[in-house]
Write a structure and sequence with these properties.
The protein is of the alpha/beta class and about 210 residues long. It contains seven helices and six strands, in the order ββαααβαβαβαβα.
């Protein structure tokens, strides 16, 4: 399908042949859910920790004798039922990260891009640049194609100057075409894909396309 490429002032300069396989596929809600869940799980530090009854400091003396007091039996001051004792079944340090199939992750990215394009939330723009890595240079390159809503800019490769220029913009995320993040793309109000990034995305997914349906 043909899609317009917008200039800095928002006018159409040319048209790009956007692949239906990447930007017009059938949206898979399940794969999007699993991709976002995987990213959020991999971001968790997993350092929550409580002390068990074996880790709480204290004496090993029996609180009171076993029989004759009329009270319930007690063998340790560190019991979870006592104030200041250990915690039963509390959180312990763990690794929440896990790997998901590459095929499902690719399907999720294609689904998000297709969903955003169908909702008119994805725009193809001319390539941007920031020769000195300055924020005002990036804003100037984007021109009228941006607003103060949550925006994702997809560029080709890992342009460190463009990424550095975008770090000071609170509502903008700059992603490389080969390092997309489902969470950022899905919740963005607007996705801007540069012309070179669109071509690179199509080449990347075409190369990984298998004979079977995803």
């Amino acid at each position: 399908m043909k899609r317009a490429v917008l200039s800095q002032n928002g006018s159409e300069t040319k048209q790009i042949d956007a692949s239906d396989y990447v930007f017009g596929c059938v949206v898979s809600e399940g794969s999007i859910y699993h991709a976002i869940r995987n990213e959020l799980a991999n971001m968790r530090v997993g350092t929550a920790k409580v002390k068990t009854r074996g880790e709480v400091a204290g004496t090993g003396k029996k609180p009171w004798r076993q029989k004759g007091t009329g009270r319930a039996r007690a063998g340790t001051f560190q019991s979870p039922v006592r104030v200041g004792g250990g915690v039963a079944f509390g959180p312990q340090p763990r690794d929440y990260s896990y790997r998901m199939p590459k095929k499902i992750k690719r399907l999720a990215m294609r689904s998000i891009l297709s969903k955003k394009l169908a909702e008119d939330a994805l725009l193809f723009v001319e390539d941007v640049s920031a020769p000195a890595g300055k924020t005002r240079e990036l804003i100037g390159s984007l021109g009228s194609n941006v607003d103060t809503h949550r925006t994702v800019l997809v560029i080709k490769g890992d342009d460190t100057l463009v990424k550095r220029a975008g770090r000071n913009i609170a509502w903008l995320k700059v992603l490389s075409h080969d390092k997309l993040r489902a969470n950022d793309l899905f919740y963005a109000r607007r996705v801007l894909v540069t012309e070179s990034a669109a071509e690179a995305l199509q080449e990347q997914y075409a190369a990984s396309k298998s004979g079977g349906a995803e």
